[in-house]
Amino acid sequence: MLNKIHYWIDRYILELGREMRLSFLPPLMVYMAYGISGLTSIVGVFFVKEYLDLSAEFLAALMFWANIPWALKMPMGHIVDLIWRFKSILECRGSGLTFHM
After folding, report:
1. What is the 3-state secondary structure (H, E, C) of 42-77?
2. Under a CB-based contact definition with an 8 Å cutoff, are residues 46 and 53 in contact?
């Protein structure tokens, strides 16, 4: 039983550290900074709410709309990665459209 637990920890937890590469660090730092800013933004929201005398509903709606670009970052990045090989074709078509207008 102890052997199975050791194997599970090695396979699913310690393996993450062994697969870590230095090139993974910048994106991880961006997501970590976003998470920390999310925690500190709670204090900012309370300050803005009291200072500007805004309702909690308005601030919640404002934060929802402000966070949509960040939520779309990953799917849009994947789409860009998929069409990246057609970059030169898309550039030629785009520059061709400017001459017709």
Report:
1. HHHHHHHHHHHCCCHHHHHHHHHHHHHHHHCHHHHH
2. no
> Whole-structure pTM over 0.90, yes or no?
no
60 in Cβ contact with 48 (< 8 Å) = no
Say how many residues make up the chain: 101
Query: Token pair of 46, please?
Result: 């309370």
Taking each helix axis as running N to C, give the angle between helix 25-52 and helix 56-71, from 0 to 180 degrees, rounded to the nearest 10. 160
| DSSP state for residue 24 in the 8-state scheme | G
Phi-psi group of 53: left, alpha or beta (phi > 0 → left; psi -120 to 50 → alpha; rest → beta) = left
Segment among 2-11, 44-53, 73-82, 92-101 with least mean pLDDT: 92-101
Convert the pLDDT of each residue in 54-87 to its tens digit. Answer: 888 888 888 889 889 888 888 888 888 888 888 8
